[in-house]
Amino acid sequence: MTISLSKGQRIDLTKTNPGLTRVVVGLGWDTNKYSGGADFDLDASAFLLYEDGKAKAADDFVFYNNPTGGAGSVTHTGDNRTGEGDGDDEQIVVDFAKIPANIHRIGITVTIYDYEARAQNFGQVSNAFVRVVDAATDREVLRYDLGEDFSTETAVVFCEFYRQNADWKFQAIGSGFAGGLGALAKNYGLDAQ
């Protein structure tokens, strides 16, 4: 049975699911009908964060152009440039057993590609969700539906995984940013140039 979370909620992942070591993080969304003329290209990313909450190097930032990071522990499965279709639009695979010991948190984010030129924002996005699936059994462990809380934001932190002693936990975040990927990367300690 899937556990459905609300914004801000936290849940034990590995402690309450013995044997859960590898998960597929499925991210999905729909776009509202509008006459912008351009495709809506949303991009999922993962930021691997040290104890100070910051990423330090390229290996700590996983996205479609750098599909593997964290010493092979986090993998982006590919870019969906239109968001068409049902189910997950993009997926990130996280192998908790391989995450380097100095990584304490993983931020899972979605940004709008070329949002300025296309005049797009998360106010035009609906039905956004993140779900965590056990990669070994294909069982959906949890789901967080973000709701329609956004207007002019161009980047959203969907959720975070964080380490507590030997266990990993999940927090539903749903926090929006203006300034797209650049602002988000800066928040996490990286220069997106």
Describe the protein.
The protein has two helices and 13 strands, in the order βββββββββαββββα.
Summed up, what is this model?
This protein has 193 residues and is mainly β. The chain has two helices and 13 strands.
What is the tally of helical segments?
2
Largest sheet: 7 strands, mixed
What proportion of the residues is helical, as a percent range? under 10%
- DSSP summary, beta strand count: 13
Order of helices and strands: EEEEEEEEEHEEEEH
Ends apart, CA distance between termini? 42 Å
Mean pLDDT over the residues:
90
Portion in strands: 35-45%
Low-pLDDT sequence parts: none
Radius of gyration: 16 Å
Tell me, what's the shape? globular
Walk across the major sheet and give the strand order: 1-11-10-3-8-7-6
Helix/strand class: mainly beta
Characteristics:
193 residues; mainly beta; six-stranded antiparallel β-sheet; 6% helix; 42% strand; globular
Topology record:
Layout: E1 3-5, E2 10-12, E3 22-31, E4 42-49, E5 61-62, E6 68-69, E7 74-76, E8 90-95, E9 105-112, H1 115-118, E10 125-134, E11 140-145, E12 155-164, E13 167-177, H2 180-187
Parallel strand pairs: 1-11
Antiparallel strand pairs: 2-13, 3-8, 3-10, 4-5, 4-9, 6-7, 7-8, 9-12, 10-11, 12-13
